[in-house]
Design goal:
With about 290 residues, this protein is α/β, with parallel strands linked by helices. The chain contains twelve helices and twelve strands. This is GFO/IDH/MocA-like oxidoreductase domain-containing protein.
């Protein structure tokens, strides 16, 4: 099996590769020499491609795509031409223009994108009785201080990578859409800078959501945090249920990276994406709208 890692723009493909290397030969393309060197130091047997075209030449069995958001539509179009299953590291779009470009692509049922958290053992398999549900809340604790140093400035730029509202907010929106489905719209959004004053976006945010059947939801984004964790709270008439996702002793497993790659490998074997694109599209629309309003 041969898997192409097309781009190393964030930390995620480095984590993905540790699981993939147990199952496949790796081909990697990344234009930044320092990022590429970091990858090849860990995976010296990986074949290095000089371009995206070269990485896709010969038909890889699957592609993990991780490029800066403005480049995703064009790069995904190239991957779709191969017919190979593709995992697009989150978020697949961060602006309205990027989302509209994705809408014009022939995205098939073996394209997967979104937050890895939906595959975390603490969350996967959770179901809700909608008739008993009053409201839901997702709290995202993920520090964004590294962006305050200027690292990966495109991620922190609202018009490119969406900033904290999109890049961290996706974790909360994804979890709620995984539970309640894609019939959701944004009711309101706000962001603020409370600590990291050199950010281009924000370090805290809140999104208000409403599903078509009247269930309301809140996503809290806390980008100033000493530890990483994600909480989903289900409010019912007589009780409250809380689901906590934490890295634990094995973050690759605990945060859902391993489960995501297992789902991707099932797609390589011929299975459709376990996440319908309609859900991914709904998540992206909520985030893009939040970015516009905030």
């Amino acid at each position: 099996m041969r898997i192409a890692l097309a781009g190393l723009a964030t930390s995620h493909p480095y984590t993905d590769a540790r699981t993939l290397a147990r199952h496949a030969d790796l081909v990697v393309w990344e234009p930044d020499p320092e990022r590429l060197r970091r990858f090849t130091d860990e995976h010296p047997r990986a074949k290095v491609a000089a371009s995206l075209a070269e990485a896709l030449a010969g038909g890889p069995d699957g592609v993990v795509l991780t490029v800066p958001n403005p480049q995703v539509p064009q790069a995904l179009a190239r991957v779709l031409e191969t017919g190979a299953p593709c995992f697009v590291n989150k978020p697949a779009a961060a602006t309205r223009a990027q989302l509209e470009q994705l809408d014009r692509l022939p995205i098939h049922d073996r394209v997967l994108s979104g937050s890895v958290l939906r595959f975390a053992p603490a969350f996967a398999g959770v179901r809700v009785d909608r008739d008993e549900l009053l409201a839901v809340r997702a709290t995202v604790r993920h520090d964004v201080g590294i962006w305050a140093t200027g690292y990966n400035a495109w991620q922190d730029t609202p018009g490119e990578g969406g900033g904290t509202m999109v890049t961290m907010g996706i974790h909360g929106v994804e979890l709620l859409v995984a539970l309640l489905g894609p019939a959701v719209r944004l009711a309101g959004a706000a962001g603020a800078t409370r600590h990291y004053t050199t950010l281009r976006s924000e370090d805290t945010g809140v999104l208000a959501l409403r599903w078509d059947d009247g269930v309301t939801g809140t996503v809290e984004i806390l980008g100033v945090s000493a530890s990483e964790s994600y909480t989903v709270t289900l409010h019912k008439r007589d009780s409250t249920e809380t689901i906590v996702i934490e890295p634990g002793d094995d973050p690759v497993k605990g945060l859902g990276y391993e489960g995501t790659i297992e789902a991707f490998l099932a797609m390589v074997g011929g299975a459709p994406s376990p996440v319908p694109w309609s859900q991914t599209r709904a998540v992206l629309d909520v985030l893009v709208t939040a970015r516009e309003r905030a």
